[in-house]
Amino acid sequence: MTLALLFPGQGSQFPGMGRDLHDGFPEARAVFEEADSVLGQPISRICFEGAEAELRRTVNTQPAILTHSIAALAAARARFPGRIAAAAFAAGHSLGEYSAGVASGAFTFADALLIVRERGRLMQEAVPEGLGAMAAILGLPAPEVAAACGEAARETALVVSPANANSPEQTVIAGHAEAVARASEICKARGARRALPLPVSAPFHCALMKPAADALEPALDALPIASPRMPIVTNVDAAAVRGPEEIRSALKRQIASCVRWVETVHLLADSGVTSAFEIGPGNVLAGLVKRTRGEIAVSALGRAADFEKLP
Length: 311
Description:
By secondary structure, the chain is α/β, with parallel strands linked by helices. Helix content is 52%, strand content 16%.
């Protein structure tokens, strides 16, 4: 059995996240305590007691999800040490790529925390509120979605492009609000089952994020990166990499580039992965993997109760 470790991204957060891990596993408690100390703010309180609106602020969301994911990983290492140590790949969706980097030993949790807080701030500030938008296109093949974005971009002379290739049936698009609305209309005219506007504060993973990517580059240049214990499958290239500079390059480019999750899942399956742990809040990735390559069995490890379900 070949195992992959998968880590969720923004959108998987929920009020109260991680409290049961904190209370049930001393290893997880130590992670939350480290996060509070490194950030100089009570991110644990935001996770455990914060209102949904507070958690949804990108500058809070990103360190909160990273902390929850690494706390769950610490609990998993304590409970299933042999299985975690034998994992063949790590991959994360968008923000989750930082969790994958920590899990693989490419960089430290403390360094990742400071980077993702800055990443969240820069992504939030890159586009004035209301100027950008995102929408989930359901039931239309990815090439058709890309073609619709191209048509809408030409018509409006604005930015719109695929942002998350999540599953064969779901592609998220992002860009200027007017262009996203026009691309959504074109997708529906071409047979999309639905085009759902998403309640997000900024248009992630498109060219409008280039200022955030540029501003984060000095911090990523200064990030100490080691060779990981296992390959990391990167969002931007959907490639399994081990070189520190390959990892750095991928992290620089991913903010303004599409998350190629479908290709990531295909690479894992084609490389012999038969099972995966989704480590962190929620179970979004389990559903996406099932709809892409159903032969990979994904078990969520985000709540204390999840650990009791596994033999």
